[in-house]
Amino acid sequence: MSMAVASTLRSVARRRPRLRLPAAPLAVPGARAAFLSGAAEEAAADAAAAAPPAPGRKVLESFREEFEIGGRSIAFETGKIARFANGSVVISMEDTHVLSTVAAAKSSEPVRDFLPLTVDYQEKQYAQGIIPTTYMRREGAPKERELLCGRIIDRPIRPLFPRGFYHEVQITVNVLSSDGKQDPDVMAANASSAALMLSDIPWNGPIGVIRVGRIDGNFILNPTVDELGLSDLNLVYACSRDKTLMIDVQAREITERDLQAGMKLAHSEAIKCIDPQIRLAKRAGKEKKEYKISLISDTSYEKIRTLSEAPIQEVFTDSSYGKFERGEALEKITQSVKAKLEEENDEDSLKFLSKAVDTVRKQVIRKRIIEEGLRVDGRQLDEVRPLYCESNTYPVLHGSALFSRGDTQVLCTVTLGAPGDAQRLDSIVGPPTKRFMLHYSFPPFSINEVAKRGGLNRREVGHGTLAEKALLAVLPPENDFPYTVRVNSEVMASDGSTSMASVCGGSMALMDAGIPVREHVAGVSVGLVSQVDPTTGDISNYRILTDILGLEDHLGDMDFKIAGTRKGITAIQLDIKPAGIPLDIICESLEPARKARNQILDRMDQEISTARAINDGSAPRLATLSFSSDALRKLLFHRKKIEQETGARVSVSDGTVTIVAKTQPIMDKAIEKVEFLVGREIEVGRTYKGIVSSIKEYGAFVEFNGGQQGLLHISELSHEPVAKISDVVTVGQVLSLMCIGQDVRGNIKLSLKATLPQPRKKKDLESKGPLPSQEVGFAAVENMPSLGTADAEPSSSKHEDGTTVEPPAFSTPSVIIRSAADCDAQDAATGPKKRAKVAKSSPRPYKAPHERQEVRTATAKKTPVATKKTKKVKIEEPESNSLETSGSEEVPEHTASNAEDLKQSPVNFRSGSMKLGDVVTAKVYQIRAFGLVLELSDGARGMHKFEVNGRKEFEVGQELLVKCSSFNTKGIPVFSLVN
Questions:
Q1: What region holds the S1 motif domain (predicted)?
Q2: Taking the chain, what is the end-to-end CA distance rounded to the nearest angstrom?
């Protein structure tokens, strides 16, 4: 039976050769493959046994402490992130999270005598959901804000490390996420304190850090970024449980009394951060390890003190020493002690020689100040060093000032720019740009050293930002003063408090640049020398020092920089060396700082007390124009070309065009090009410049106002009939035309004759004689917007019936005044021949190239006689018939023999015949900000520009002897005074 079944199966397999059995067992639990042999079943069982087990679930044990300050919940968390770090904490406030980690080297270098603490604060763009805009799309070198936040963390933490701990410590802070509401710097400082508490590094913490603002007189704890914009106080305060460690203030002239109240409130609230850190360290902290402490033995210290104390005391008691002389004398003492120790082969003492000698210096000078009240340079404790102030040091700059206090000297310069020159900030909080910048530079030569200049320096950035905060409070609002301002502070010599000298010099430079700051800002640094009770550790005696030297800063306990005006404080930075100073002593230091600040302000006011005029000197001109977004497309394409052709800087943003130029002519040229390219709203009666694009029989089409087309009809070319339009204008010619309306087809109607004065009949002119009201060649002063500009308007003209017609603005003069040399050259070229009158003359400013025009003047003959013979002068004006006037006046030669005759203007003087070098008598008609408006004998007017810082006292009606020195672009004569 079995044989039959097997035969049947074989026959079936032959009939269906395409049927293939699976090579692996069927994945059915608990089932067996019907067509597998026993060997295949065993192989499948072995493969199932060899499969890897499923991974288990890891549980991260984390610890969390929550507390509340100012109605906002704050939390410390550890154990979840960065578990390998010696200490790591994530602090959170709302949706802002900051990670702080700490690590320390296991061994220190044997010769190191300082704490190499490094704080790296980073704000990566992912924290606010943005990809960096750099070329590599990565964050680059640390920005200024990151360096400043690192200093906020470093300054209160550094004093709490034990004495002799010289192991390398690195604190790394990363902003994990930011909601843009909270500034992460204060959170980072608290997180760094908690991370040090969790680590095994010896540290005498914890600390609490808080920010305090004030809006409408009410203090706000941990204000948001928006609230800080409304606050007149930005106080960052760090403290231990009973002492102050760091203060950083930016304020708008807050009084000393209000500041004391804010600091006391900050202290009481900041200590709320301490207990949660202690609880977190008990739950998850490591035991403190025994790190090697590098301390000199008492025996070695006493030996060094015995050898060096007497000569050091002798140097410090001699007030005649300067900074470098004193340093050289102290270095000789150190080398003398070193030689004696080398003779004795005392290796242990040699290892700590420099540190021990520095300690001896510190004790000698501190003892002398506390017990005798005497300072190194012989000053009283509250005495300010001698001051030197100078403004306008370099007149070619926009603003400059030199400030010296003692041997500290700072040169400050101011540069003004367009709003587009503002600094772009890539910070995750705060404004995107900054229009006021103060850059502080501390070159090596200022302390007579040789060193390489690198990139951003933490100290330079910190000092510059402090001075920037101090001056920011007195700057005018951006709407009133739209310039971008850059102050450069170059330290020329340093002997203490260069940052406060930068405040004083920067304030004077701002006034010298014409920036309307409300009043001066000055700064002074206050120091402290204290004596500590060895049993209790409390301060038993102390002295407050005003305007400290560099040596007093190094050997003292604190550097308390305070800047402000007479009304109040604008900026503060407190750095200390001991492990905290009582708040009462800090509050006591505010009063001597205020008195010293007022003394410095008095001296600064003597040099410069008000801002100079913005257009004096080489200050740039700034103009702001508003356009629609569609109209700005052409300007964006041609902006670089306009800048190259004019020399001005053009910036475009949000429908506003800002132009910055060094001089007024450059500004006028840039505005003209911008308006011609972009176009303005067309107004009837306004004058525009255009280019003739095509000529027809009935008129010419003119392109103007940013590409718009207008029709200049043949009847609007001149007051006289025109037979052929091509005789008057040509394609490509630039014309000044007035818009007179629209025709029935909607074409814009332009007029050339509307910009020209009405012609006069020859008979009327001969009967009336010279017309004093008609000013030929320059504009009426009443219509000039400002002296020295090309925007002057010609004077009014009269019709034949006597009615007065005011010409439009920005018209071109009817007669172009030439110099004497030009007139003589033309007369010599034309000769004595008479030219036939042209019946149809074109307007002179816009004549065709083939047209000619002749102006005949009397040529001077070289004779020994002091006067010239009279001669008829024939002037052919394009807008009227030929004009003959009898020049009967005698023009005296400009010689010393007839100097008295020069004081009188010629009889029947015609301003139209004026040439360069003519000397006339003029009356002062108006006194303006930058010059005089002068009235000549025929009623015409000219101008006299004041020189830079050369303005004198004048009175209206005063007669002056003046000389024609030049003409501006509209033909207005510019006179210089004849001594």
A1: 685-753
A2: 148
